[in-house]
Amino acid sequence: MAARSFRASELFAGIVLLGAIGFGANALLAGAERWLLRWQRP
Description:
Blueprint: H1 2-5, H2 8-36
């Protein structure tokens, strides 16, 4: 039963979506860190 409901395309779409969300969140937080802590740079 589980083998019939396995849909590889949906699985990979979810993996790609989670990766894109993680990449975007990392870029957003890195930009916020640069902006908020710009006074610490030499």
